[in-house]
Amino acid sequence: MSPTERLVINRLRERPVDGPAVDRFLARWGSPIIEGERATFLYRGHVDQAWIRHRVVGLPDPLEMKRVGDTDLWAVTTVLPEGSRVEYQVETRQGEQYHRFNDPLNPRLAHSPLGSSSVCAAIGYRVPDWVVPDPEARPGTLVEEVVRSRALRRDQPVQIYLPARFNRATNYPLLVVHDGTDYLQFAAMKTVLDNLIHRLDVDPLVAVFVPPKDRLKEYPNHAPHARFVARELVPLLNERLPLVDTPEARCLMGSSFGGVASLSTAVRYPGFFGSLLLQSASLVFTDIGFEHGGGPAFDPVVKFVNAFRARPRQVVDRIFMSCGVYEPLITPNRSMVPVLRHAGMRVHYVEARDGHNWENWRDRLGDGLSWLFPGPQKFVYE
């Protein structure tokens, strides 16, 4: 008997099935059903067709579901390797009407600025314990400020994280976070910082969370944005807070276009920052021609990355990079690692069986922050 024949959904198909049998099946197994490296997605409803929609590179999208017997239960099974985490939705067709929504049989959701998605976690995936609020961890403080920026020609709101037991007699390293509001809301970053600092995995630090006004304009190698960060924001924070005023103590971070903003700012001000934390950075490039497939928003990104690849140079000392193997950006990120290393920068690169989403980036924060800002506990074990 093959592994697929032993799946519980196939055992259900082998016998007469009615509504009560479907009720019992769903009550016992739920959805999705994880069996080894296979995931079975289910939907129940009187529709003409049903699909699973996702953004996993390598899998057909959509995954077409099949009706189970003469019931209103639909199912599709796919391979999901150990440690995987996938965000998805259900799409249905009834006549000419199409609808797309989160899986009503699955209560597990992930959130982003674009809305929410259902989550399927394979065997071996666990939410890191440092993501959950720890009652023993003293909380840091978030202070809201507004910075008047000549470079951006506007008032720029920011939120400043001060660690627990903040002491003006102590000097702290500085972390500048692009898409700062999203990191706080969708990646639980304040909780993550509180926990990692409490556990001595990360040295106490000051972080400034900076939201963009127009990220597609300001993040891909935008001179006014870089000038704001390096020549206005950091000097102002140095005046107001007890920071270590050296490049080694300053780090830029961001995900997707925020990763491009971090690298391009460092390129415009080489040696001013000591490290970068890049998560699924949109480092799209072309080796020949001009067709990159990303649309007009990626034109300045490609121009910047192409120029850097043509003349790579050391702009910081260390870079932590992460990317999901299920996202289209995995190839550009893999390709940039040797370029950055060849330029003389130390690069710590990790991959995860995940996609282009905030929980992937959240789950990599422990590795990234503890490598860039190691606390006493990390030194003990390393």
Output the CATH homologous superfamily of the largest domain.
Answer: Alpha/Beta hydrolase fold, catalytic domain
| Computed Rg | 23 Å
Low-confidence stretches: none
Number of helices: 11
- CATH topology term of the largest domain: Rossmann fold
CATH class bucket of the largest domain? Alpha Beta
End-to-end Cα distance, whole Å, is 47 Å
The computed structural class is alpha/beta
Shape field: globular
Order of helices and strands: HHEEEEEEEEEEEEEHHEHHEHEHEHEHH
Q: In total, how many domains does the architecture comprise?
A: 2
By DSSP, the count of extended strands is: 18
Strand order of the largest sheet: 11-12-14-13-15-16-17-18
Strand content: 25-35%
Helical amount among residues, as a percent range? 25-40%
Oligomer: single chain
- How would you state the average pLDDT, rounded? 95
What does the main sheet amount to? 8 strands, mixed
CATH architecture of the largest domain: 3-Layer(aba) Sandwich
Short description:
With 382 residues, the chain is of the alpha/beta class. The protein is built from eleven helices and 18 strands. The chain has helices spanning 8-13, 19-29, 180-186, 189-198, 215-218, 223-240, 257-268, 299-310, 330-342, 358-372, 376-381, and strands at residues 33-35, 38-44, 49-54, 63-64, 66-67, 73-79, 85-94, 97-101, 109-112, 115-121, 141-149, 154-162, 174-178, 206-210, 250-255, 275-279, 318-324, 346-352.
Structural account:
With 382 residues, the protein is α/β, with parallel strands linked by helices. The chain folds into 2 domains: 114 residues, Immunoglobulin-like (Sandwich); 253 residues, Alpha/Beta hydrolase fold, catalytic domain (Rossmann fold). 30% of the residues lie in helices and 28% in strands. The protein is built from 11 helices and 18 strands. The chain has an 8-stranded mixed beta sheet, with helices on both faces. Strand 15, helix 7 and strand 16 form a beta-alpha-beta unit. Helix 6 packs across helix 7. The chain is globular and about 75 Å long. The N and C termini lie far apart (47 Å). The model has no long low-confidence stretch (mean pLDDT 95).
